[in-house]
Amino acid sequence: MSTREVSDREDPTIESLDQLATPMAAGEKPREAWRIGTEHEKFVYDTADHHAPSYGEQGGIRDLLMNLTEFGWEPIVEGGNVIAMKGSDGTVSLEPAGQLELRVPRWRIFTRPAPKRGVIWPR
C-alpha cells in the first residue's frame, strides 16, 4: 500500500488488463519448474513463566539455535552472533521479536489429479 499523495512524475493510466498482466506473465516459469516452499514462524517462550527469552540468556534464543548442531545443522553467523542455522532439510532463522522461522526447501507441485484420501504422492 502506498501513502504517497503527490507524484513528481506523470503516472500512466491503466487502460487494459494487458498493461497489468504482461509484466507478470514475463516472469512465469514453465509448468515443469513450478515449486512450492513453506515457512513456519514460531514465537519462543519459556514454559515455566511464559516470558520471551532473550538472545543471550541461558536457554535463550542462541542456545536454542545452537542445539540444532546435534542434528548436523550449521550456524550462520553475522557480527559474531548466530542468526540462523542451516541443515540439509531447511533453515531456521531469527526474526524480529525473537520469533524463529523454519523454512523448508521447495517441493515440486503436482499437476495431476488428486489421489484418493490417505494416499501420499512421492517426491
Could you please describe the fold and organization of this structure?
- The longest helix is centred in the N-terminal third of the chain and has 9 residues, at 17-25.
- Residues 118-123 have low confidence and may be disordered.
- The protein has helices at residues 17-25, 61-66; strands spanning 35-42, 74-78, 81-87, 90-94, 100-108.
- The protein has a five-stranded antiparallel β-sheet.
- The two termini are 38 Å apart.
- With 123 residues, the protein is an alpha+beta fold.
- Strand 4 and strand 5 (100-108) form a beta hairpin.
- It contains two helices and five strands, in the order H-E-H-E-E-E-E.
Task: Give the tags.
28% strand, disordered C terminus, single chain, 12% helix, five-stranded antiparallel sheet, alpha+beta, 123 residues
SSE class: alpha+beta
Describe the strand arrangement of the main beta sheet, using strand numbers.
Answer: 1-5-4-3-2
Q: How far apart are the first and last residues' alpha carbons, in Å?
A: 38 Å
Please mark out the parts with pLDDT under 50 across 5 or more consecutive residues, or reply none.
118-123
Question: Could you tell me the strand content as a percent range?
Answer: 25-35%
Q: Could you tell me the number of beta strands?
A: 5
Helix/strand order: HEHEEEE
Mean of residue pLDDT values: 83
Portion of residues in helices? 10-25%
- Rounded Rg: 22 Å
Query: What is the global morphology?
Result: elongated
Main beta sheet: strand number and arrangement? 5 strands, antiparallel
